[in-house]
Amino acid sequence: MYAFDIERPATVADAVAALSNEDAQALGGGQTLIPTLKARLASPEKLISLSGISEMQGMSSEGGALRIGGGTIHATVATEAAAIYPALAALASHIGDPAVRNRGTIGGSIANNDPAACYPAAALASGATIVTNSREIAADDYFQGMFTTALDEGEIVTAVSFPIPEKAHYEKFVQPASRFALVGVYVAKFADVVRVAVTGASNEGVHRWTAAEEALSANFSADALADLTVSADDLINDLHGSAEYRAHLVKVMTGRAVSKAK
Amino acid sequence: MTKVTMTINGKEVSGDVEGRTLLSSFLREDLRMTGTHIGCDTSQCGACTVHVNGKTVKSCTMFAAEAEGAQVSTIEGQANADGSLNVIQQAFQDHHGLQCGFCTPGMVMTTAALLKINPKPSEQEVREHLEGNICRCTGYHNIVKAILAASGQDVSTIAAE
Fold first, then answer.
1. Which residue ranges does the record assign to the FAD-binding PCMH-type domain (chain A) (predicted)?
2. What CATH number is attached to the domain comprising A234?
3. Where among B46, B77, B108 does a domain terminate?
4. Is B160 a member of any domain?
5. What is the ipTM score, two decimals?
6. Which of A4, A67, A197, B72 could pair covalently with A121 via S-S, beta carbons 3.0-4.6 A apart?
């Protein structure tokens, strides 16, 4: 790693002020950033640790939505969200491994927008609102491609607010070495609409599968997908799986997610 | 350099660290507590697992500065007060849960955390909890057996492999 200093502000306001330095970078749980720094793929002068900011911790229910502080670790979501939004808790309980879940945060995952990360699929399928230090952004506007989001320089994800669906499930086909999703599909059924978000599959990062959403909104059953096909165009093609294989997995994972949704 | 202070295995320790100093480096190089091993340095293998405020973390993927004020437990603090092996360590020995032993500190720390939240885990739960701890010698079978034995469950019907 190149040398850098670490600051540990106690409030969002102090963190935002510290991040106004253009050579500063926010540090969440570090489960992606620290390996990136070790590989010398980033060279910030200063890391602004968000782990000591109490206002970004924990979760609360408000008006049919579950609001989770951006600094909340996956292990906390896995246990404390289980009664309120079980599909989201189940997703959190299968990110990485137990030690990673004790450090990695939802805000870090959403801000990084890794194309194979789990949380972006949950946020997009749930129609979540990404709350930052300065504004609220709808998930549909927030995710803008692989490692790309609507966040401005120095903007912090302070919370994510998830509308709670009637039924939901996340089905992940695990890439066994990294434990990221080779393909993961999050299906969320609301009273009037079904939303389907796919992670791990596309060069464009997390995205909605609108044809499946229409079919499932009319008939919420895996059978409703029978006549649909997924194009392999622009899907990820690497040593772990071809684009065609990923296209196949998208449909299979979606079907399983629908069948298991509760 | 920044001064950090934390409690390790019940003893308060301080040291001057750079921002980039990993908790694993602080333990091994500054404090000479070399029981915590570095296997991969990419947060895959889990040999560097320690507890920070009671939760397992990969100490190679956490900065020492982030452990300011924390309660840290390492393998050096696991033995009984008289120096004898604790229940988990003894079970690993009894059931041949190690060969080269390199991954064992991380395995023991991960097991200690598991048994605290789940005192009688099923075999499946043990295997899932070990997802972040890699052993290249044993094939895991005897590690799982040792953990089940450490939890007080009867492992006499599990065949050795």
1. 1-167
2. 3.30.390.50
3. B77
4. no
5. 0.95
6. A197
pLDDT digits (tens, 9 = 90+) for A198-210: 999 999 999 999 9
Mean pLDDT of chain A, nearest integer: 96
Reference A8, options A24, A23, A22; nearest CA is A24
Identify whether B109 is part of a domain: yes
* Structural domain harbouring B59: 2-77
Which pLDDT tens digit goes with each residue over B21-59?
A: 999 999 999 999 999 999 998 889 999 999 999 999 999
Find the CATH number of the domain harbouring B119. 1.10.150.120
Confidence band of B161 (pLDDT split at 50, 70, 90): low
Same domain assignment for residues B115 and B70: no
Among chain B, residues having any CB pair with chain A shorter than 8 Å are 2, 18-20, 22, 41-44, 46, 49, 52, 55-58, 61-63, 65-66, 68, 110, 113-114, 129, 131-133
Nearest residue in B to A50, CA atom: B66
> What is the residue whose two structure tokens read 């393909």?
A183
For residues B91 and B142, membership in a common domain is answered with yes
For residues B10 and A165, what is the distance between their CA atoms, to the nearest angstrom? 46
Q: Which pair of structure tokens corresponds to residue A118? A: 């789990």
Average the pLDDT over A18-29 and give the result: 96
What's the pLDDT score for residue A179?
81
Q: Which residue has the tokens 């793929």?
A: A41
A51 Cα distance to chain centroid = 19
- pLDDT of residue B160 exceeding 60, the answer is no
Q: How many domains does chain B have?
A: 2
Give the CATH number for residue B69: 3.10.20.30
Whether chain B has a CB inside 8 Å of the CB on A36: the answer is no
Number of domains in chain A: 3
**Residue B54 zone, left/alpha/beta (φ > 0; ψ -120 to 50; rest):** left
Q: Are B12 and B63 within one domain?
A: yes
CA separation for the pair A31, A43 (Å, rounded): 16
Question: What are A6-22's pLDDT values in tens digits?
Answer: 999 999 999 999 999 99
Question: A133-142: per-residue pLDDT in tens?
Answer: 999 999 999 9
User: pTM of the prediction?
Assistant: 0.95
Same domain, B130 and B68: no
The per-residue pLDDT for range B128-147, each reduced to its tens digit, is 999 999 999 988 999 999 99
Last residue of a domain, one of B77, B109, B126: B77
Q: Do B66 and A6 touch (CB under 8 A)?
A: yes
Range of the domain at A40: 5-49
For B52, the closest chain A residue by CA position comes to A102
